[in-house]
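Journal club prep — side note

Before the paper discussion, L.F. wants everyone to see what a predicted structure for a comparable chain looks like in token form. Sequence:
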Amino acid sequence: MTAGQPVQVGDFQMTFLEFNPNATSALAARGLTPQSGSKFVGVKLKATNTSAKEERPGKVGLMIEGVYMETLGYHESDGMRSVSSLQPGQSVEAWQYIQIPESMQPTSYTYNYYSTDYNIYKSAKNITVRIS
């Protein structure tokens, strides 16, 4: 998959919009600094609720080369995790910020979907999106 191609992930249609390979300075302006030897990157997404009920877009996560956004991410006011819920058919554009090693130069990410049935994050059909 590439930028702009929507994919179905659980109850959401997700579209990759933009990648920020160095979101560290933007988040530093908000008082957030990465751990030593790490940096922040950002992935801007559009999430559309395709289910028949209200859902949290935070159920969709990202994994960049083994680093889970949910474990190391920061959820800012413009972040996907700050959106409490979407009604059926409603969309939102927001960022997911991820802390990764400074030396990492990611070229893709994989979607994950939080299943309340199993209470775990699962890879979403191994949907990988190229970011460079």
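L.F.'s comment for the group: Confidence is low (pLDDT under 50) at residues 70-74. Keep this in mind when we get to the figures.
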